[in-house]
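User: two proteins, same treatment. go.

Assistant:
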Amino acid sequence: MPIVFVHGVNNRDGEAYRENEQARDGFLKEIVAPALGMKPNKLQVLNPYWGKYGVQFAWGMAVLPNPSAEFEAFGKDAEAEARGRVAGLLAESHANGNIVDMARKDFRTAIDLLYASAMAGAETEEEARDLAKSYELAIAYAEANPQPAWLADAEPSNFADRLNHAARASDVESFGAGGILDSLKEGVSRLFNAAPDATTEVAGRLLRKKLNATITRFAGDAFVYLDNRGTVDKPGPIVGTVLADLRKASAISKAEGEPLVVIAHSFGGEIVYDILTYFDPGIAVDCLITVGSQVGLFEEMKLYKVSSPTLPPNPPGERVVRPASLKRWLNVFDTNDVLSYQLEPVVDGVSDFHYDTGYSSFGAHGGYFMRPSFYKRMAKRLAQG
């Protein structure tokens, strides 16, 4: 079965991008594939990368307000990058005390938080798949032992070890073995060292610059896409890149008699919608999952190739018809994610779902695919047909 993942704006090739892709592919193969009755290695994941065709800044964003040069190199090392990916988790962690305090209140949530932090440091698909397998076992242990006795005297410094020892004693095969245990220990440490104090002036200035750059590139990529998306006869480079992998996946789906699933994050949803309604409406998609997307917002502004101010005739009482070639459409948003929107009020035949990433408003937009529980819920929804 093929899955096509279409990324959104503000993605550029590099170590962090590739690590995120490998981690995501690993969890899709180990958690989503089995739920659909597939062996992990049989799942084919296509990741069309269109970021290279995004916005280019002639002066390298020189217009952005810049903190002093003393802070320019902040967070450039590999571990700092990993800590940065879980910085939003700190808000949840501190709000509920440390990892042990959280575990005493909600063991499953604490495990999900721990694995989200460990997942941020995964450097290969193999490592991510091992973490996904371990996560499945950890959740099974938590379901069987929602409040294990050892939590009473556990501490953050030994939480991963105590969890590993208890799970092994319960005959949970291969839980936390070898490098996985080290990854979990790093995950615990990362949760408490991921970001500077948000109340300090330095942190505020750095956060402002990062947010400013993110929004700038978001808008820039969207403008470039809208200006250069092309026509049916001559698609632009972004459309062409995504369209090629969608057609490839469609051919695989037909040849193997397997469903085609498309996952579109953020602006990837707008690209896929344009393709399914204008560039190639003949591509049959069994399920489209838009995550943190603005598809409905862009239709409200009538920015798609097929958008018309007269269709539907009487909004908001009427809605746009779902693409004919799309059998099922799930739209996921987080209310903390200021770049995500509902879709049901605008497009007919769509199911909206809320998912709490646990991240702050800044981290929520990219946080969906950092939480192991997101893959579990995706697998469950897909399995429901």
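Protein 2:
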Amino acid sequence: MTKSSRRFNIDRDVAPWTGASRPYDIAKEVAICFLVIGLLTVGLSVLFSSPDDPAVTLKQWAVSTPIDFATTAATELDGTGGTAGYGPPYNTAADGPKVLGISPAKIAGVHIPVDAAKDFVLSPVAALPENPVASQAIATYEAASVAQRQSWAANYDAAVTASTASTSGGKVIVVPGDYGPVSTIVDQLVAMAQSGALDTTMLTQQRFFSTDFTKPLLFISDGSFLANKAAIDHLQGDQWGMMNETGSWPGQAWLWLYTMWYQVPGLSTSDNADLQVFLIIIGLTLLLAFLPFIPGLRSIPRWTRVYKVIWKDHYRNT
């Protein structure tokens, strides 16, 4: 059946235009739009600028809150830290978010391997040059059984989080206990971080010239220091963090459709919210992409006559 002999379908076909016409230079309009937007972007950037907060570093964390730093280091050693139990793509400790019993993260597997205890604590301390105290502590720790290591780390974790823990000259002070070499390892790590050496060491573990901040960021995020800074700047998830700049600066308003779903009851408390929101956005995107091919939905503009509002000047003259 040829197009000319096919029966006209008002929901699918468009009747030939028989009204008036006038020339329209779309290239000129596009050029003007880009010019105006470009001038506005540059002009507003010059007038209002944007916050340029320095990056959060391990040194800043260890100097500001050494007890939180030491506590986080202990949780990495006893396996209770956030990264240690995260699952793919870092390890196999969990399955990751699920929808209908399916975990895409588990299917994808571990492709950014992270051993929290080794990468965040043991390897950096072992890399300290000409430090027999650190070397002996690492050797003693690695020679012990897994159960003994966890016991030492758990004991230290409990001590450093107790109200009796304090600091003196930047060093963390805890009550005496059965910590084995863990207290020495953590003390060395704290001092290393406070000197700024840990920031460099964690990057050069991967390669000499590296811009991959995955491991330092994971380590910082396991503590409370980064979360507290985010709360002060109104960047927490329950504060619509993805849409905010620090302070009172406007954020990325185009992200509202994505971040909105995290505020919906049910999704806001779901352990699988990231995956669920991602699938919702994918579904909405596909719906928009295939809208011209969906009977009924594609006729909404015709039913609502919204086109008469858009082209009101034309219909007023006609």
